[in-house]
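Hello K.,

You asked for the raw outputs rather than the summary table, so here they are, unedited. I folded two proteins back to back in the same session to keep the settings identical. This is the first:
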Amino acid sequence: MCYDDNTENIRNIYRQVGAQIYRKKTKVTVMYAFERVLVGEALVGVGPEVAHIDLVIGPRGSTVEQAFVNALASPTVGHTPLLAVLAPNLPAKPHTLMVNKVTIKGAGQALLIFGPAQAAVAKAVMDCVGTGTLPEELAEDLFIIVSVFIEWDAKDKKKVYEYNYQATKLAIERAVAKEPKPIEILAKKDSAKHPFA
């Protein structure tokens, strides 16, 4: 959200939300959520290409940055963290690390992670920057870790891309908005049905 420098309520807003203020020319951008770790989740799609995304977003100096560096430096057999890129040499900003939830057991599954899922996650991040969900001013100072689910039986590259794009974008939007709210979860706790339970 942007305000002119001379807006008289800017300091009150700052105090109310505990936000950081970033000055850019004659505008002041109030960053509500980005001084703490945010968590998002989304499930999109059906069949073996279903996308389930869990993610965390955190500022430079946070535990998210430390986990990002540790994971990138510590690959294990079947679990290779990788940067989300739109194309080779064109990584997403904020810096985005993908980690797979399911052990990669073959070349087909690896190609889905290192292809459509990687591109989809990067595109979702950059579209969130484009819409302002993730502030462009903070693109160098935020870190995102995205946990990606690719089922062993997944085959359709287009569905893998589309479902992971939608799920990543939705998870980022939910994280930034801190949704769902606890009151919503409490209202559904006895009626919610988990699709895989």
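The second followed immediately with the same parameters:
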Amino acid sequence: MTVPTWLRSPWANLVCTQAAWFACVIGAAKESPWLGPVVTVVWCGLWLWLSSHRRADLILVVGSAVIGYVVDSALVLGGFFAFAPAVQLGGPSPLWMVALWALFGTSVRGPLRRLLDKPLLSAVVGAVAGPLAYGGGVRLGAASFGDDDVASRLAIGVAWAIALPLLGLLERRTRVDAVVGASVEPGLGSAG
């Protein structure tokens, strides 16, 4: 079966990842926390099927999910972030939040690679973008900040300032594992 070229583009990755992000967040906000993980499994499955290096890309997706689970669980246990019991679906970090991090893993090799190749820059971007992304989820009703809004945003910023460089390190390590001596496409997966 021939795969359409556009499906391997960074734009397809962006559109599909954003659609799955909305399924996760809106699903949780509407007390359907299972919706996002289902859509995520479909997108990640398609993304891996299209990948030239499934093993390396699977490591990225699973590694991203693990990093996210640890980060979000620490934020929940520290009282900086909370989820309504109706949308918990696992915990301390719910399954739909872990799905968001897995989605993030599909963008690490492609659209985010150049940013994540610069650890200091990715830490700064994480410190700013993390609280903004979580704020979006809070505004949509999927979660809430802890009692101290400022402390919650600062804790999320610190967590993301650590998480993004870790994801960059994971990407670089799996890039070498994918193919020695080959370049990596800025699209869906690695080339070779």
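Residues 9-177 form one domain.

Happy to rerun anything if the numbers look odd on your end.

Regards,
P.
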